[in-house]
Every structure is written in structure tokens, then in C-alpha cells.
Amino acid sequence: MSVETQKETLGFQTEVKQLLHLMIHSLYSNKEIFLRELISNASDAVDKLRFEALAKPELLEGGAELKIRVSFDKDAKTVTLEDNGIGMSREDAITHLGTIAKSGTADFMKHLTGDQKKDSHLIGQFGVGFYSAFIVADKVDVFSRRAGSPSSEGVHWSSKGEGDFEVATVDKAERGTRIVLHLKSGEDEFADGWRLRNIIKKYSDHIALPIELPKEVAAAEGEEQPAVEWETVNRASALWTRPRTDIKDEEYQEFYKHIAHDFENPLSWSHNKVEGKLEYSSLLYVPTRAPFDLYQREAPKGLKLYVQRVFVMDQAESFLPLYLRFIKGVVDSNDLSLNVSREILQKDPIIDSMKSALTKRVLDMLEKLAKNEPEQYKGFWKNFGQVMKEGPAEDFANKEKIAGLLRFASTHGDDGEQVVGLAEYLARAKEGQEKIYYLTGETYAQVKNSPHLEVFRKKGIEVLLLTDRIDEWLMSYLSDFDGKSFVDVARGDLDLGNLDSEEDKKAAEEVAKAKEGLVERLKTALGESVAEVRVSHRLTDSPAILAIGEQDLGLQMRQILEASGQKVPDSKPIFEFNPAHPLIEKLDNEQSDERFGDLSHILFDQAALAAGDSLKDPAAYVRRLNKLLVELSA
């Protein structure tokens, strides 16, 4: 063993201590995943070397045959994993093995479910895969040297998974990393060739470089120990380059878990090879669950990019729009140069063509899922629906296609589930219905019971109920679907078109004319609080509502702008009243101007509350209401 110099003991980052304690004492249900995670890390290290060697061939140091080797020693109770990838310097080892970037552990802890098997699968998803070694080992030694560094600059990192680790400088002739796991008592099952072979076949068969295990052969004459030969135990070919007919579903699923660091099978996938003007292969996956950082728009995202099977980039963002940031997969192009950078990707017209084609492929995959597996699509929408709602604003070319994938709650449901598609809505629309009606609000209970829906219930017309924070913003980008325009039932002067009979229209005109005097009195009483007062065609049961001006912001958009610190334009609501309601009839007969004013403001404030808005002067509302109650009890 080479002499160690510059030896020092350093403490783990606090989060790593917590994680190690969890690994050692809690996550032991599915122990074998440690090998999956270490092989995955080794594969990444080899990919990085292959890419860096394009510009610096000397990094290969004469050894261009890239591989991973897994061996064991039953007597010493060790398992060793070795790769000849990029390797680590002393500083790399301290940084990568002693700390976790971006509070990975905090997120990891937050997402624990209490189910040991599921929790153990979360490990890779949060970038803490290396520490899974401590599930089966009570000591881990790492020997590494970064490619291109002299052999005297090797590093030996060692830890027993407690509060600290040792790091020393050693001689290491070969580039790359060797990890030695000293197995805990009772974990001897892993120091076995058959067991290791089965784990590799189960989790890592898709890794696109050879994973070798020792194959014992008989000793040659005169030799005491049998010679060691190595045999490849995985396919060692890039999955996406193989014909689809040769790939089993289980292989697609394991490959997804490898690239996505996910523990669940994907909902769906699409494997495609394009030939002709552009040549590339793609393998795209829809996850079953949303990643923990889905709503952090700056979080890492994108596809793994290969050029002629050579790994180039981990999160290539340029191949899919932001609203599809949850899609995982790989794209392998023959048309890009091997020295591509993020800057080049953003300016390359080839990328634009590929992005357009890949986006359509994802949307087609989702359409197929929605049509053939509606229950599965319901789960997809629950996890990714709000992100999909960003699509119409971002991707004008596919706006109609995206709109067809959107799901909403509606007045035809009773549980608030977002399951109604626009095609389904139109298929059961009333005869003569030319519009798609919707209402936005803060909660399902609020919109479901809104007075704005009264005339629609009376006529049996379905209304979409939109309660996500971004729904009003979304609808500002959706003008129509399948030739039918969208109408906000709380906005402007409601016109039901052919759904109103000529008799209904004539009766409404006559009532409006008869109530012109009341309209003027209400305008005077409410003054600057309203933009307009008019007789309502929306109401059957409630006395009054507040409608939004055709060009004004709704409540949702106002709240979003206020929350972001932006100035909200001034606007006033339209006060509509139901002339047939007893309260309105009483108001119309009220002789006292003071009492008329109080009653008018009470009705206005109640209409604001029914719309989900807050009162501008709650004290005045309470004062007027109390005054009215005293008069009634006198």
C-alpha cells in the first residue's frame, strides 16, 4: 500500500450527519439499491471523462477502454467497485463526499413517507446516492485520482459513517475511482458473485458501458492461485439505440429509474428514431409523480443529450419548452457537433426543429394516455396539471393541442375534481350553444355556489369551474377551442345567444325599462363604488351580484399582481340586481334616502363577499347591518 501524506480529519456537513444516521439506522428495507446508486455514479464519471477527452485526448492516458468493475472478497467481507472515469482530486473528494449541495438532504427528509422500501428508493432522486453505501457498510474507503493529474496526486477518503471522515494524499497509478465497502456484520450476502450479478442485471443492465465481474478459472499448472478473468454481465449498449421490438417494458422502466433517479415506474414513454433531413433518436418519459422541485422554475431540468452516443450534457433545456419540464429522457443526435455548449444550443436552428418535433411527440403521448388510460391521465393531471396550464402562453403553435389536454371541474360534477376536457364539454353542450362558459374563483365551494351560475342551473347549461391560482391568467391566452369562444360568466354583459328565447329577451328588455328609476337611485346611492348599475339576467335566487368589466382584471389576477408587488390598475365592479327578489322589491319601495343608501351598501358588500372579495370598509358594513337589525327588532 502506498504511503499516505497530508492526512487530516474533517467533519461532515450537518445535513450529511443527519442523512448518515438515517441510512445506518432506518433505511434497510431494500438494501441492494446501494449497488445501483454506486454504479450509476460510476457511469456518470465515465460519461464525463468521455466528453472532456473530446477536447483533451490526453485525459484518457492511453486507456480508452472505459468500464466499471465490481469485485468481492468473502474472507475480508468487502465489495469493491472501480471505474476508470474522470476521477476526483483531493478537493473534489472533500466537496462531493463531505457536503450535499442545494440542501438535498433537507428535501430528502421532507419527502420521507415512513415506508422503508419507498424511502430507500428516494435516495438517488436527491443526489445523495453515494451515502447509500452505509446501508450495508460500516466503513467506506474511496481511492481516486482525477484524469490528467500525476499519480502522486491520488486521494484516499475514508469514513465509518459517523461524525467525520479522513482524507489523505496517496499514489494512485490508474485514473478513476475505487470504492471499497467493508460490509457490516450480517451483510455477507453481498460478498457473493451470484448475488452481485443478479443485482446488476436487475438494476443496471441498461448502463451503456461494460460492467465486469471476476470469473474464476482453474489455476494454470504451477500456479497456487487461479487467474482472474473478467466477464461483462450487462448488455453494455445504449438502450435508445436498440430496436423497440427488442426492448422489454421492464428494461424501459429500469432505464427510466436510472436517468430520473426515481423509484416508481413511469406513466408512459415514447421511443423514436428520426431519419432523413435530421437524424436523431429520442426516448421520452412521463413520470408518475411530480418531482419535489417542479415549481422551482430555476431548478435543473431537461433531457440527457448524447451526440453519436457520446454523453454531452445532463440537463439540456433547449429541446423542450418550460411547461414540459417534468419530462425525462435522452436525445441522441447525429447532426450536432460534439463540442456543443448551452450557448450554441440556444442559437442552433437544428435545435429549434428538434424541439418542435419532440414537443409534438410529448403532446401526442399525453393525448394517447388521456384517450386510452383515462384513470392514469387523471393521476397525471393531478400532479402536472398546473404546469401544463403554462403551455398556451408559452407555446402558441400547439395552443389548440394543449387546450385539448386541459382538465377542469364543472357544474356537472359534484366533487370538484378536474376531470372535464374541452372536447367532452362540447360533446354534451346544449343545442344551439356557441360558447364555452367558465367561472374563476378562489375555491371550489365559492364558485360552485356563486350567484353567477343561477341562470345556467335554471337552463341546464354546463359551466367550467376554475379555481387554480393561474386560471384567470391561463384564460387570457385561450380565446377559443374547436371554433367555440370562451366566455367568463362573471364578466361583461352576459349574452346567452341562441340559448335565450325571443320571449326571454323581450321580457328582459321590458323589466329593464320598468326599473330605470331604481337603477338611477342605486347609482346615486353607491356613487364611486361602482362603474355601472343594471338589471341582471344572470340571477334567479340572489338579490345582487358584482360583474367584472369586459377589459378589467378579475380577482385572481389582481391578487397575483399584488402578491408580486406590481401596481394593480384601478377598476370598479358592475352592480347587477335581480328585480324579482323580495329584497329588491322592498328596496324599490323604500322612501327614506338614508335607509335606501344603507340597504344598497349592504347588498353591495354581500355581493362582494359572495364573489370571494374582501370588503374595503368592513366596519361600515357591520355598522349598517347592526343598524338594520336594531330597526327590525324594534
From TrEMBL:
Domain named Histidine kinase/HSP90-like ATPase: residues: 30-187
Record-level GO cellular component terms: cytoplasm
Alphabetical list of InterPro entries matching this protein: HATPase_C_sf, HATPase_dom, Heat_shock_protein_90_CS, HSP90_C, Hsp90_fam, Hsp90_N, Ribosomal_Su5_D2-typ_SF
Region named A: 1-342
Keywords: ATP-binding, Chaperone, Cytoplasm, Nucleotide-binding, Stress response
SUPFAM superfamilies xrefs: ATPase domain of HSP90 chaperone/DNA topoisomerase II/histidine kinase, HSP90 C-terminal domain, Ribosomal protein S5 domain 2-like
Chief location: cytoplasm
Annotated compartments: Cytoplasm
SMART domains found in the cross-reference section: HATPase_c
Ligand binding (ATP): 37, 41, 83, 88, 102-104, 125-130, 177, 342
Pfam families xrefs: HATPase_c_3, HSP90
Keyword RNA-binding applies: no
NCBIfam families xrefs: PRK05218.1
Record HAMAP family: HSP90 (MF_00505)
Subunit text: Homodimer.
Family, per entry: Belongs to the heat shock protein 90 family.
Protein name: Chaperone protein HtpG
